[in-house]
Amino acid sequence: MRIFYLVKKEFIEIFRQKELLTLLFIAPIIQIIILGYIVKTDVENIPIEIINLSKSKTSYRIINRIKNTPLFNVKHISYKNRDSINTLKEGNVKAVITFRDSFDKNRAMLKYPEIQILMDGTDSNTSSIAAGYFNGISKKYILTDIEKMDKKLSIKNKTLIRFNPALKSINYMGPGIVALLLTIVSLFLASASIVREKEQQTMDTLLISRLTSIEIYIGKALPIAIIGIINMSFGISVVMIWFKIPIRGNLFILLISAIIFLYAILSYGLLISTIASTKQQALFFSWFSMITFILLSGLFTPTENIPSNLQFLVKINPLSYLIKIIREIFLKGNGIEYFYKDLLCLSFIAILVISISILNFKRFTSK
C-alpha cells in the first residue's frame, strides 16, 4: 500500500510537466509514422543516364522497360558516346548504362546488344542493388522473348518468398522501430528518476520514510514500466493500422517479452541514475548506451555482419533479443517454441541487471 503512494507521486511528477507529456505519448506515434517512411531498405528512383549506341529494336524495348519502372529515374538518354566517368563524377546519377550493337564472327549484327553498366561505388549498397535490378529487367525481357519464339529453357527456376512476399521493408523495420522507441522512452525516464530526487534534494525524505529500499526501487520503476507498455501498445497499433502490417503471432507472448525487456532496461536506467550526480550525466550515459544498443541490435544491419570476436556484445544486448522476438511474432507468426531460447537469454540478462541494480541501489541508500 505504501508503494501505491510513491507510484502516485511519480505519476504526478511526470504528468505535471506538460511538455514531457507531449514527448511521451504524441512524439513516439509521430516518430513511428515518419521513421516508417524514411528508415527502409527499399531502393527506388535510382537516378541513371542511358547511352544508346545500338540500332537494334531490343535496346529500345529494354530502355522502355527501364523508363516505366519506379526502380529507376532516367535523367537523360543520349544517342552519342559520352564520358561516363565524368558523368558519374558530377554526381547527378548513380549509374550510366550503355547499349552497343554486338556482332558475330561474320560481322552480322546479333539480336541482343552488349550492355555495360557503370556504377558509382561511393554508395556500395545502392550500386549493388541497382545492378541487381537492371540484371533482373534484362533477364526477364530475354526470357519473355525466348518464350515468344516457342522455345523453352531446360532449367527454369521459381522463387517463393515466405512471410514477407511483397518484400516491403516497412514490414521488417516497423516492429523494430516500436522496440526502439520503447527503449528510448524507458531508458531516458528511468535514468532521470533518482537523479531528479538528488537535484531536488528530496531523496533524503524518501530514505527517512517508512519505505524500504526495495519499495522505493519498485515505486520508481513501476510508473515508467506502465508508460512503456502504453507506448508500445500505441506503437503496435500504429504499425498495424497506419502501415497495415498484420500481426500473425500471439500478442500475449509479445507482451510478456516486452515486460521482461522492460525489467532489464529499467534496471539499467536506474543503475545509471544512482551512479550519476546530475541529470546531464544521466542523460549522457543513457544516450551513449542507447546508441550502442541500437547499433548492436540488428535493427538496421544484420548482427551476422559483426565480427565473431565482438559477437558477445550482441548476446548481452537485450534489445537484440526483443527485436528478434517481435519480428518472429509479427512476420512469421511463430509461437514461443521457436524463440524460447531468446526469451530465456533475455530473462537471464534481466535477472542479472536487476540484481546488480538493486544491490547498487541498496548500497546507495545505505550511505
Q: Order of strands side by side in the largest beta sheet? A: 2-1-3-4
Query: What is Rg?
Result: 28 Å
Query: Which structural class is indicated by helix and strand composition?
Result: alpha/beta
Mean pLDDT: 86
- Largest sheet data: 4 strands, mixed
The end-to-end span amounts to 26 Å
Let me know the number of strands: 4
Low-confidence stretches: none
How many structural units, i.e. domains? Answer: 2
Give a brief description.
The protein has 13 helices and four strands. The chain is of the alpha/beta class and 367 residues long.
Question: What does this 3D model show about the protein?
Answer:
This protein is an alpha/beta fold. The chain folds into two domains: 237 residues, no CATH class; 103 residues, 3-Layer(aba) Sandwich (D-Maltodextrin-Binding Protein, domain 2), CATH 3.40.190. The protein has 13 helices and four strands. The protein has a four-stranded mixed β-sheet, sandwiched between helices. The longest helix is centred in the middle third of the chain and has 32 residues. It starts with a helix and ends with a helix. The relative contact order is 0.11. The model has no long low-confidence stretch (mean pLDDT 86).
Short key terms for the protein model shown above:
alpha/beta, D-Maltodextrin-Binding Protein, domain 2, four-stranded mixed sheet, 13 helices, 4 strands
What does the secondary structure layout of this molecule look like, with pairings?
Layout: H1 2-15, H2 18-38, E1 46-52, H3 57-67, E2 72-78, H4 84-90, E3 95-100, E4 114-119, H5 124-148, H6 169-200, H7 203-207, H8 213-241, H9 251-275, H10 279-295, H11 311-315, H12 318-332, H13 336-365
Parallel strand pairs: 1-2, 1-3
Antiparallel strand pairs: 3-4
Helix pairs in contact: 1-8, 2-6, 2-8, 6-8, 6-9, 6-10, 6-12, 8-9, 9-10, 9-12, 9-13, 12-13
